[in-house]
Design a protein that fits this description.
Elements (H helix, E strand, L loop, with lengths): L1 H15 L21 E16 L2 E19 L2 E16 L2 E9 L2 E12 L2 E11 L14 E11 L3 E11 L5 H6 L3 E14 L2 E10 L11 E12 L2 E10 L7 E10 L1
Antiparallel strand pairs: 1-2, 1-13, 2-3, 3-4, 3-5, 5-6, 6-7, 7-8, 8-9, 9-10, 10-11, 11-12, 12-13
């Protein structure tokens, strides 16, 4: 039971990171870089989760640092690649039972905005995760996985709303994962941004995703709030706080990041 809980938490983190958004948002927007332009992101996340089952308490601390680079192949299409590095520590009733770190699965995505008029826009984002992380350490699935997201964005004078609906297909190398993890998952989330003052945005995000744990009927749901500060036109700093809305989601996570456009 405890090992299954730990594995599920690892898989939820891997699945969630398959989509790239304006950090610290989980929900993506339809915006693109523009032809010939690059965007570099360096993001970090510290998460904590506590679970009790059969009289045993499991505490997990996870830290992730991710770099991603996107390039505008046309004005309305970007190609995006991201590589995360994770540190994971698990304690059972105060005793260390697992401590792993390493590169996780690399994600490659294509975002195509196919409609834009009067502030309303739609985009499609197909993606792949490549098995660069160790499945034995719980850092990867061991197989190529893929996803498809439909993105809706609506911009107003000083605010915007974004909606994501996605399908994720996971493949697993280990037999234990094949029998305990779902392959077909869905994702739905909504985010909003509001410019409080010039160059400072307040952001909020809420979402839910199908639980990868085949034995669980509770789908992890989250809420997130944060700030994005545009130091210059091409340089942003951000910070966010994410909390779980049920027991299947990580209790809380602190997110920080920077974005550079060139």
């Amino acid at each position: 039971m405890i090992n299954r809980i730990i594995k599920t938490m690892f898989m939820v983190l891997i699945i969630t990171e398959a989509a790239f958004a304006a950090h610290p948002l989980i929900t993506d927007d339809s915006g693109t870089n523009g032809k010939g332009n690059f965007q570099f992101e360096l993001n970090s996340e510290f998460g904590y989760d506590k679970e009790s089952s059969d009289g045993i308490t499991v505490k997990e601390r996870g830290t992730e640092v991710k770099t991603s680079l996107s390039y505008g192949i046309t004005d309305s299409a970007d190609i995006i690649a991201g590589l995360p590095y994770q540190w994971n520590r698990t304690e059972e009733d105060g005793t260390l039972i697992s401590e792993e770190n390493g590169i996780s699965d690399m994600a490659v995505e294509l975002k195509w905005r196919f409609y834009e008029q009067d502030g309303l826009s739609f985009a499609l984002k197909p993606g792949l995760t490549l098995p660069t992380g160790s499945e034995d350490k719980g850092l990867g699935a061991g197989r190529v996985c893929y996803s498809l997201f439909f993105i809706t964005s609506k911009k107003f004078d000083s605010s915007a709303v974004h909606i994501n609906a996605g399908y994720l297909r996971n493949e697993y190398k280990l037999e234990t994962d094949k029998t305990s993890q779902r392959k077909d998952l869905w994702h739905f989330s909504v985010a909003g941004t509001y410019e409080i003052v010039e160059n400072l945005q307040l952001i909020a995000n809420i979402g839910i995703e199908k639980n990868s744990d085949i034995y669980s009927k509770i789908d992890p749901a989250f809420a997130l709030a944060g700030l994005i500060w545009s130091v210059t036109k091409n340089f942003d700093l951000d910070m966010g706080f994410k909390m779980g809305l049920n027991q299947s989601e990580t209790d809380y996570a602190i997110l920080t990041g920077l974005t550079l456009r060139f």
